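Hey,
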Amino acid sequence: MVDATTEQREWRVTGMDCGSCAAKVRGAVERLPGIADVDVALMAERLRLTLDAAQTSPEAVEKAVRRVGFGIAPKGAAPERPKGGFVLPEGAFPVADAGAGDNADNASASPDQPPVARWYQTPKGRLVIGTGALLAAAWGARLVLPAEIALWGFVLATLIGLAPVAARAVAMARAGMPFTIEMLMTIAAGGALVIGEAEEAALVVFLFAVGELLEGISAGKARDSIRALSRLVPRTAQLEADGRTRAVSAAKLAVGQVVQVRPGDRVPCDGEVIAGISGVDESPVTGESVPILKESGAQVFAGSINTEALLRVRVTKAAEDNTIARIVRLVEEAESARAPTERFIDRFSRVYMPAVVGAAVLVAIVPPLAFGQAWGEWVYRALALLLIGCPCALVISVPASITSALSTGARNGLLMKGGAVVEAAARTTHVAFDKTGTLTHGKPRVTDLSVLDGHEADLLALAAGVESGASHPLGQAICAEADRRGINAAPATGARALPGKGAEALIDGATVCVGSPRLAGERGALKDDLGDRTAALEAEGKTVVIVLRDDVAQGLIALRDEPRADAAEAVAALRSLGISSIMLTGDNPRTAQAIAGGLGIGHRAGLLPEDKVAAIRDLTTDARVMMIGDGINDAPALAAAHVGVAMGSGTDVALETADAAILRNRVTDVAATIRLSRAAMANIRQNIVIALGLKAVFLVTTVFGITGLWIAILADTGATVLVTMNALRLLFYRPSDSSPVQGHTPRTNSVTATP
């Protein structure tokens, strides 16, 4: 039972460079009394846990983390640079800003980041330079001085470089974590000194320092992709107040306030345009490369760029709830939803590390005791084996790839809530689509005009006159079509609705009615071939209304919720990936058949929300199913699927329920999400092969005496850097590219659809 002293707390932990660092932080705090639900996110630099303050204070948690060599600060406070540790400087890898104008500069700074420093100004950087200089000096001394004197140069280089490593190893051991790379490094380098290999010990210490520095730089490079999202929102906004404009902090904007966005500026908030017409570049947020025309009533995203003219925007969401903040929050939170592969590797590493230490002990003592071999030689090989056995590269192989994939997805308008979602999406075999608002626009549009008397413009003017001010979607669609064609609605009076049948009004002294075929039949107007025309259009899934003047048919108008322009392309793209598609809709079978037939997709029609859930569960019995939807009624089906994906224009309920979201409202982005997920899983497999493959090779060569200590440390730190750099390749992946994903063989699955 949770009492009043139990609460969830969060800190920012600095100095974590690899997966084993996160494990050290976790191990340091989870042994404390009253601690539960420990979550350490490496890339987000976040520690979150449930704390019983009656047993352990927040200060005790911070002390435990600092004791093992990391910096820690409460959420929202300035980050702490770890004592003797290393935080990648924010300015070391500046992120190019796509903006222009005054706000572009504002976006580059971040008040919660450590002061800018170069790598050589950091403790680890200075350690690399210092140990490197001592090693070079020792080599130089060996050329001009007796070997006995030069030997002490190598001993000094080893001891100076090893001191901070040994201190961390002791701290970890005291915290209950004896099997760390620092401990293995201390034993290996110290043992090398004991058996007279001072030169190699110094080289190993130097290479270890270089490897740690590179790990930090690589991890920081990956974090930059997430931090770049936060920097998209400008720090200041031009607020309208008391008849004038003044600069204020964008983070303090309140819902309802009005801001000005000048040409070239970034939009400082999520809001609604209330004045002005301009093109807005939403590519920083959604990946959409073509500027979108925004006018009064249009919605704009924080972080997008105004390209043409002044806009006045009313704030609709607070800074902590705007689109960019939600994306960053989703990406950071996603790291906690670890992939099954990552969880398996964590469990494997806990067994693997003690096993390697045990193997090294056997290598050191069995040959000399059992076969009379030289102790020095086999102790040396055992020390090298210890260094090779460190699982850093293996531990980071999954989270590095997942984080890169999540960041790439966020930049391209594809949000996935964690590694588990990435892995599940990569295994998708079937995709189920909602129809309305997902495959279609969600609003009826005029598709056909058939005139019996006069011209199309006359027919549309009469219909728009009757429907002016209508709240019914069909009436609104007719008025929208008249506006699109530049046709003025005929002046009408006495307009009234005919419930379930249509509407009528007086135009030029005549009663004009826009109604259903049933109404036209009741008034005796459904004559000649008008009934046949109506039936033919209805067979195509269209809704038909007939325009009557004094009960004489003037023509008919057909409307339908048309498929999105890219819907057919999306279905084809999924088919090329070996994925089958099906449409689930509550619409009538005739309309569903017409839409599905045009898209080349199976369908099930007339479904209530619970029927959609049943359909999803039926599919999931023998397939991996992704569900795409946008409405409240889709939320249960999204939750029932292996992966639920919400269209970006969907309801908040759908977005919160779904495992992923598509911000650009492009149906083709469904295939892009799957491509990105498959690319991420291929990258993970490559990383695991690199990590285990290098270790396997050098384990064998070390046991047989072919390679020594300095090669062993290269195998460890080199594998970690290689794995991280390979994961960073995903930052440049283009998920919209339809080229085949490496390692994927298209399948030919089928869906049995019933109307």
